Amino acid sequence: MLVPVSLCIGTLIIICITHWVYRWRNPRCNGKLPPGSMGFPFIGETHRFFTPTTSSDIPPFMKERMERYIWNMVLSLVGPESLKQKLLPHIVHGVKRNLLLWGNQDTVDLKEAVSKMIFELTARKLISYEYDPTKPSENLRECFAAFNEGLISFPLDIPGTAYHKCLQCSDLKSGSITRLTRRGRKHAMKILKAMLQERRKIPKSCPEDFFDHVLDELKNEGTKLTEAIGLDLMFLLLFASLKTTSISTTFANKLLTENPAVLEELTEEKHDAIIRSRKNEDAQLTWKEYKSTKFTIKVINESVRLANIVPGVFRKALKDVHIKGYTIPAGWAVMLCIPSVHLNPSEYKDPLEFNPHRWDGVELNGGTKDFMAFGAGQRFCVGTDFAKLQMAVFLHFLVTKYKWKTIKGGDITRIPGVTFPNGFHIKISEKNT
Ligand code: HEM
C-alpha cells in the first residue's frame, strides 16, 4: 500500500516541478496560462512517435505540397469514389461474415471482436496485410494495441512503463504470445518495412494499396518522399483508422443497448427505407441506400460526439499568440480539449443525453467550432467517410438481422482515450431464432 502511494505522490511532485519550471522559465508567459490549459512540456511529445528525422530537412512549401499529394493518395484509397466503387462490397461482406460467426458463439466481447473485424478490413485494404496465425511475431494488431496503451502516458522510457511498451522494439524471432502483446511502434515499423521490401521484389502492375502508391512515388526523380516518411505514413494511417473506428462502433452499440427507443427508431428506418422497399430482401446494401439512411448518420454523429474518441488535438504556436489577455509563447504545444466542446451545455442541451434528434436539420460537411469529433479545418480527418461507412454498414446488419443482450462488462473508462476495461460481452442471435 505504502509503495504505490509513495509512487503516486512522487510522480505528482515531479509533474508539478516540471510544470512550474517550464511555466516560469519563459518570461513571456508571465506565469499565466489560459484557464483549463495544461502547461506540461511533454504534452508536445507525441510528435516523436510520428515524425521521421528526415522530415525536418524538408522546406515548408515542399512539406505542404507533399502533404497534399499524400492526402490525395490516401483519398484515392478511402475517399468517396473508392468507398462507393470498391470498398462498400468488402465492408458488407466482412460485417456479414463476422456477425454470422458471432451469432454462433455463446458470448462475444464486442470491443475485441469489432476491433479485429475493423483491423482485418482496414489493414487488408490499405496495405494488403493478412494476419498469418502461424507467424504470431508478425501480429500487427497487437503492436498497435501496445502502442495505443502508452500513447498518452508519462514519458518514462524504462522497461515496465506504458511509454516503454508503446515505443518498444522486440526481437522479431523470439517471444511467447505474452511478450508479443507488449510490442509497440518499433516492432510495427519492422513489420511494415519488411512488407515494403517484399513488395519491391514483386511489384504490382497497377497501384492497389498504399505500398504501391509509395513505391511509385519513390521512383520519381526529385521526389521528397523517402522510404522513412512513407513507412511513417503507413503507420500513422493504420493508427489513425483502427482504434477510432472500432471504439466508436462499440460505443454506438452500447448507447443503443441503453436507449431502446433510439434502437427501435433506427431499426424502423432500416426496415422502412431499405429492406421493405427492395424487390429482393437479401440484396446487398447499395450506396444509394446507405446515403438514404439519415437517422443512422444522426446516430453516428451523436455517438462520436459522446464518445470523444480523440480527447485532444495538438498544435504548436509558431509565433506568440495573444488571446484574452494571455500569451501562448512561440514554440509551445497547445492541446485542444474536444470533450469540453462536445459537452458544452450552452451548445448542447442536456449534453450527456444520447439524443440523435439534436442533429435534425443539421448538415455536417466537415468540422465546426462546436463539433470536432473528426477534427476541423486543415487537419480534418481524411478517413471520416470511411469510418462512417463502416459504422453505418455494421449498424445496418446488426439491427435488421440480429438481436442481442448484455452479458457482462460495458463499463467505460477514459485514460484519457475511451476504453472498456472489462470488455463489452454480449450474446448475439439472429432475429428469427
Ligand atoms: C470514428 C473514427 C475516427 C475518428 C473519431 C477520427 C478522428 C480524427 C481527428 C479528431 C483528427 C484530427 C487530428 C488533428 O486535428 O490533429 C483526425 C485526423 C486524421 N485521421 Fe481520423 N478519425 C477516425 C477515423 C479515421 C480513419 C478510418 C482514417 C484512415 C483511413 C483516419 C485517418 C486520419 C488521418 C490520416 C488524419 C490526419 C489528417 C491530417 O493531419 O491532415 N481517421 N482523425
Give a verbal description of the structure.
- This is Cytochrome P450.
- It comes from Papaver somniferum (Opium poppy).
- This protein is mainly alpha-helical and 433 residues long.
- Helices cover 53% and strands 9% of the residues.
- The chain has 16 helices and 9 strands.
- It has a 3-stranded antiparallel β-sheet. The chain has a two-stranded antiparallel sheet with strand order 2-5. A two-stranded antiparallel ribbon has the order 3-4.
- A hairpin with a 2-residue loop joins strand 3 and strand 4.
- Helix 3 packs across helix 4, helix 11 crosses helix 14 and helix 11 runs parallel beside helix 16.
- It is globular.
- About 12% of the residues have low confidence.
- The structure holds protoporphyrin IX containing FE (HEM).
- Protoporphyrin IX containing FE (HEM) binds next to helix 11 and helix 16.
